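Give me the fold.
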Amino acid sequence: MLTLFTDTDTDITPAVAAEYGYRLISMPYAVDGETVFPYEDERPVDMRAFYDSLRAGVLPTTSGLSSEKYKQYFRPEFEAGNDILYVHFSAAMSCTFDAMHEALEELREEFPERKFYEIDTKGITILAYLIVREIGDMLLAGKTPEEVCAWADREMLHFAQYFFADDLKFFRRSGRVSGISATMGTLLGIRPIIYMNSEGKMLSLTKERGRARAMERLLAFMEEKGEDIAAHRVAIGHTDAPEMAEELAEKIRERFGKDLQIDIICTNPTAGCHCGPNGVGVAFHAKER
């Protein structure tokens, strides 16, 4: 038997995970010293309340999992005689995967006959979301783990993501984006367009003044980079900005077809700690990143 895992930083919710049989690994964040593991207790996350707390001045922190926590997820599956396929967010963005590999070294000694397949999406939030769902669809169609891993090696960099944030202090504090200056950007209405590169890192690509121009830049990148867009899902992510997300979805349908399958997703709170509220982005199938 094969057990599927993904993590909450891929924007997969328990409801979507259940469609494919994924088990969710919860990536934590902390507020005032209290650590929160999204969805671990199977309760829904109140996204509005979370992002409202950021608007009110709360600045959460994030951290990786311990090797012991990974063993709690993986050991029961190996004990049951199951192999594991884990599709996860970008390893280049967190040291948590060092702890995961440490845990796996110990577990492989205990269970040498078990297989562990790892797919690094080199993305986070909606970019990873698209890849997790594509892989889930393939497995439901009867593809083997080996076939899925081979597909990932070929196709991973044919999914692209572009987004912008409303308040740059969150990125400045987290240091997760290269080439971004948050000193005056928010006051001047400057919004950097950020993308995931082929290494799975977030980089600032260009800057636009105002939301309208930033949104138009997202569409321009879709036109420039897009490939077979209609044959794949498009994902729009937002950090508690549903009206902006709907506006972007309508613009995308106008340019790329009314029949597009567009998933609109509120960004998970752990990633949202670094983005802040009122941002929006798009992920799609592309010629390249």
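The mean pLDDT is 93.
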